[in-house]
Amino acid sequence: MFRVDLNSDLGESFGRYTIGMDDKIIPMITSANVACGYHASDPVVMNKTLAMAKEAGIRVGAHPGFPDLMGFGRRNLSVSQEEAKAYTLYQLGALDAFCRINGLKMQHVKPHGALYNMAAKDYELSKAICEAIKEFDQELIVLALSGGELAHAAKDMGLRTALEVFADRAYEEDGTLVNRRKEGAMITDETLAISRVVRMIKEKKVTAITGKDIPIQADSVCVHGDGEKALAFVEKIRAALQDEGIEICSLDEIV
Description:
Layout: E1 2-10, H1 22-25, E2 31-35, H2 43-56, E3 59-63, H3 81-101, E4 106-109, H4 113-121, H5 123-136, E5 141-145, H6 149-156, E6 160-166, H7 190-202, E7 205-207, E8 213-215, E9 220-222, H8 230-243, E10 246-248
């Protein structure tokens, strides 16, 4: 039996600015990565996002990023391990406050944007992030790029670890995501994206941007909720997985 979680990065609106279609995406997924105020979101948005997740009966996790609202957390910052750990703790604490008042328990942590991509290549940065998570709640699941250093650090520290793949992103041969500024970084063909996801789950392989097949593990599939066709894309992925006999369930049921 093949099983997979569907996750999406949500709660990224800010003040009067709306990003994504959270209310429509939430019922289609099993795990929500909720922005914690550094790269996006604000206290009101965080609270509303958790309330929607609770109503839909899905699990929630923290989506901590760099303190970079203007860059949406996608710009690399040079930070010390001490800073990375403190940034992570700060954001976990912020989201946990809203989890408590909504009667929710945090399931997982998935770093955002540049922090996620840098951690995938930097073991020491990953270690700092994982230290924050372990000290905050050692039962939390670390949602990390399949084959990346964050996954290695989390496992080395004895944390529950789920490996993530992306439906709409291309991969380099080393298993890292192709930089968004590089041609071919985004998979825009829905049929191709879905077939790649099914193969990643069933065959544990994906074709890198170079054309070479590389190994990959898919405990969770990230589906973005801020594109023009986001909702239709999520609906098609769900339908395709069900047609392939792949069970869709939360991370707690997988790792």
